[in-house]
Design brief:
Function: Catalyzes the NADPH-dependent reduction of L-glutamate 5-phosphate into L-glutamate 5-semialdehyde and phosphate. The product spontaneously undergoes cyclization to form 1-pyrroline-5-carboxylate.
Largest sheet: 7 strands, parallel
Order of helices and strands: HHHHHEEEHEHEHEHEHEHEHEEHEHEEEE
Structural class: alpha/beta
Protein name: Gamma-glutamyl phosphate reductase
CATH topology of the largest domain: Aldehyde Dehydrogenase, Chain A, domain 1
Number of helices: 14
Distance between the termini: 53 Å
Family: Belongs to the gamma-glutamyl phosphate reductase family.
CATH superfamily of the largest domain: Aldehyde Dehydrogenase, Chain A, domain 1
Radius of gyration: 23 Å
Keywords: Amino-acid biosynthesis, Cytoplasm, NADP, Oxidoreductase, Proline biosynthesis
Organism: Enterococcus hirae
Helix content: 40-55%
């Protein structure tokens, strides 16, 4: 069993060193990490193949295998994301405000690292490199606990990142890996309050719920994505079709994919058959309410649970609504506060949707698939926060920092 206390002690010591490293030092090491991935592409693919073989034996679905699978292109992209993070502005040490108070004290607000970050995640090996590089650039030590399905991939990726640090004469403990994937060890990590400053869970609904229930360490909740697309009566239907197909079928296993389609009743009779054909051509099956069923040939009747389900698969729930009010009400009752979209040419409808829908990312005439740290210009993301305290939406470098006040005086007393 992994000695988490020792990992915690190592991380705490490393965090103190990281917090004082210059931007130039961090950027140079990140570039070396990117090169290390590219040089070891073959070994990474071999480790990933072991994970894929085990996952196939365990009858993992094809969409989930897609989350797990690494290819030369994906490894290249992982390395490029690290390089992008090296090119981003370093938030650490930045003084965001400076003012003089009534006592003549000069008060500033300075960006500092959070300290030691724990991350519990599932399936996707790119999370390992994204999280490690974002934490490193923002001056944080990180303890990574990936899922058993990606064990060999994650283990090797962390070893390569650690080797980069060792080759540079630094402690490898800035990035550490929990090599025990048991629930008992995960539960222990959730209570490592002496060493962890924050814990970030990234995965499915069951993982998020378990962490929320068990953790005594402060957490930042990254979300499941029960995301909706609402097609308004004033929508351009060709645009709507393209957006729906992209949001559902381009990569259904990710959290920014659409799970429910809402359609205004005025356009449902002639638009539903069109969108059904487009989706079925992409392998998507539909689960519809009774009103939508009237216009669909292949759909099955939706059950109550379908409106609250993140399928992560080629399945889409479909519902007919009579108004924008009904669409917004349905979304706010059933969504997970992740990403929501409206397709409309009505400025008034778009503004109401933006103002009234409660989610981390709200779109007008665009696919929900854009909710991503790299796409937003953050280099990568450590997760997409669906809560409102500290961080919300894709979490980049700034979201992995805190602030402290720095105060200059001239002998003032109170």
């Amino acid at each position: 069993m992994t000695d988490l206390n020792q990992l915690g002690k190592n991380a705490k010591q490393s965090a103190q060193t990281l917090a004082l490293m210059s931007t130039e030092q961090k950027n140079d090491l990140l570039k070396q990490m990117a090169l290390m991935l590219k040089k070891n592409q073959g070994a990474i693919l071999e480790a990933n193949q072991k994970d894929l073989e085990q996952a196939t034996e365990n009858q993992m679905s094809e969409t989930m295998l897609d989350r797990l699978r690494l290819t030369p292109e994906r490894i290249h992209d992982m390395a490029e994301e690290i390089s992008k993070i090296a090119s981003l502005e370093d938030p650490i040490g930045k003084v965001e405000q400076m003012w003089k108070n009534a006592d003549g004290l000069l008060i500033g607000k300075k960006r500092v690292p959070l300290g030691v970050i724990g991350i519990i995640y599932e399936s996707r090996p790119n999370v390992t490199t994204d999280a490690a590089s974002l934490a490193f650039k923002s001056g944080n030590a990180v303890i990574l606990r990936g899922g058993k399905e990606a064990f060999f991939s994650n283990q090797l990726l962390v070893k390569l990142l650690q080797q980069t640090l060792t080759d540079a004469g630094l402690s490898p403990y800035a990035v550490q890996f929990v090599d025990d994937t048991s629930h008992e060890t995960a539960a222990e990590l959730m209570k490592l309050t002496e060493y962890l400053d924050v814990l970030i869970p990234r995965g499915g609904a069951n993982l998020i719920r378990r962490v929320k229930e068990q953790a005594t360490v402060p957490i930042i909740e990254t979300g499941t994505g029960n995301n909706h697309i609402y097609i308004d009566k004033d929508a351009q239907l060709t645009m709507a079709t393209n957006i729906i197909v992209n949001a559902k079928a381009s990569r259904p296993s990710v959290c920014n994919a659409a799970e429910t389609l809402l359609i205004h009743s005025e356009i449902a009779p002639f638009f539903l058959p069109v969108i059904e054909k487009a989706l079925v051509d992409h392998g998507v099956s539909l689960r519809a309410d009774t009103r939508a069923m009237e216009y669909l040939e292949t759909a099955t009747l939706a059950e109550k649970a379908d409106w609250d389900t993140e399928y992560l698969d080629y399945i889409l729930a479909v519902k007919v609504v009579d108004s924008l009010d009904e669409a917004i009400d349905h979304i706010n009752r059933h969504n997970t506060k992740h990403s929501e979209a409206i397709v409309t040419d009505s400025y008034q409808a778009s503004q109401r949707f933006l103002n009234e829908v409660d989610a981390a990312a709200v779109y007008v005439n665009a696919s929900t698939r854009f909710t991503d740290g790299a796409v937003f210009g953050f280099g990568a993301e450590i997760g997409i926060s669906t809560q409102k305290l500290h961080a919300r939406g894709p979490m980049g470098l700034n979201e992995l920092t805190s602030t402290k006040y720095i105060i200059y005086g001239e002998g003032q007393i109170r």
